[in-house]
Amino acid sequence: MSARRRGAQGSVVVLIVFAVLFAAETLGWVAAVLRNPFGPDGLAAEVLYFLGEAFAVLAPAAWFLATVWLARTPQSRDIVLIVGLVLLVPWPFVIGAV
Amino acid sequence: MSDLPPNMRDEDRVTGPIEIPPEFRQRSSSSVELPGAILPPPAPTQRRDWGSLIVAILFGFAFGWDLFEALANLVGLLNYAAAAGYRLNSFAWIVLGTAIVLPPLGYAIALGVGRRRGPARLALVLFAALAATSCASLTLEALVR
């Protein structure tokens, strides 16, 4: 097996690990949104608030896809993915769970 | 011919294709340099990317709404605090201030990353930033509550 082939496989493994972590954050946001009792008054405000919650659930997937699609090198891709993992921690869920 | 010194003999003249040293090669295959006498140089300005502009404006409304909401939260809490006769503490100021700073910051970073990459990529980057902003504002809201 050549070095390049090994590198490509390692990259795929790294990518799968990141995908699993981002999926876990998605589940955390789903739980946080389901547990969130807060909602503004009024239909329009409620719809927009729900939209924000839906965006929060979609955020890890969006970050993952955007990074994989736009990154120019594997190094920059991994760095941006790590930044996303840190930024998108579902804190409402984490705080609520403690 | 044979009485010439070795370094002046013509034996090692190039017969195959000439190997161009790397420093003289074209940097990219897309930009072929032609002598100016044959063709005028290409226009320095490229066509405006209308798709990206529309995407940026549409997402600008979404980010603008987030900013408006954050400002409304601050004003509402200030009024509430004034009516109750006390002042907002520093923690509330930090949380509400962060909520105001985040939407423009996310929009600017996403535009910086996604601009010049075409409308589809710009849209995905802007959506990722918008979604991350939603996550942040839900987190800040959970902190204040």
From TrEMBL, chain A:
Keyword annotations of the record: Membrane, Transmembrane, Transmembrane helix
Membrane-spanning parts: 12-35, 47-71, 78-97
Domain of life according to the entry: Bacteria
Protein name: Uncharacterized protein
From TrEMBL, chain B:
The entry's keywords: Membrane, Transmembrane, Transmembrane helix
Keyword Transmembrane helix on entry: yes
Region spans: Disordered: 1-29
Entry's transmembrane regions: 50-68, 88-110, 122-144
Name of the molecule in the record: MFS transporter
